[in-house]
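In this section we walk through a basic example: taking a raw amino acid sequence and producing a predicted 3D structure, encoded as discrete structure tokens. The instruction is simple. Fold the sequence below.
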Amino acid sequence: MTSPFHPTNWSQACASWIHEIQIAFDPPAPVEPGRGGILRLMRWSTPRVTTLVILSFTLHCTRPPMSISTTRTSSPNGISALEGQPYIEEGIASWYGGNDDGFAGRPTASGEIFDPDQYTCAHRTLPLGSFVEVENLENHRRTVLRVNDRGPFIKGRVLDVSKQGAHELGLIGHGTSRIRLRSVDAMGLPTTLDPAANQADPFVVQVASLSDPKNIDTLTKELENTFGIVSLQSAVTRSGLSVKRVRVGSYTSRQDAEQAAEQIAKLLKDRGVEPFITRQR
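The resulting token sequence is shown next.
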């Protein structure tokens, strides 16, 4: 019997020990997805998911930037807007509905009776029933008003606010102030104007407000020869004078109305006439 300490037995023992180590450290056989437990599934899927993430990131970073096309419109009246953006305008605002101006209780352009204690305003072209956020640029007070009337028809002014609106904006003691307005919804959030309003209530060019029938007739005939349709709208001024507003055209595009206003201004440049754009009602 060979001694356990014999060199031959040592060699066999070492060979067996090395074989066991090789077995212990032999890499695991590949496992198909769905077999062998969650850890093996994660070990199989991780490198593949990583590859997809890297590929997606690379494609995104090398893609050329998207080009956004916008159109800006502006006018001398301080109107500035981007297509698809809220309507914004700056100018002078006044207020009406005081005890002695006689407007309380009269019908507005929308047909409702004017109440000075409501949050309403008058604008030449904004759709009736729309809302605007108005900021007094001199004291930065703001309020939201509903457009229910047309005006102001005084040069240099863009908005007439009710007495209540004037209180909110701090206009009562000053009479007028420079303001900025933008179109909003009933909740006061910025919104765009509805293009359908241009079809329902087209633009017109108001040329003059006259009280003398002879002057009204002369101007009407002169304008008809050049521009076609001329309409007359009855109105009462703040001083109580009954007048006829002489108006030209019916335009569903503000740009067309502006071109007509420029042509009329050139035609009547020696008469002191300053036509402006408003709506049929």
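Looking at the output, two observations stand out. The chain is about 30% helix and 25% strand. Residues 215 and 248 are 16 Å apart (CA to CA). In the next section we compare this with other chains.
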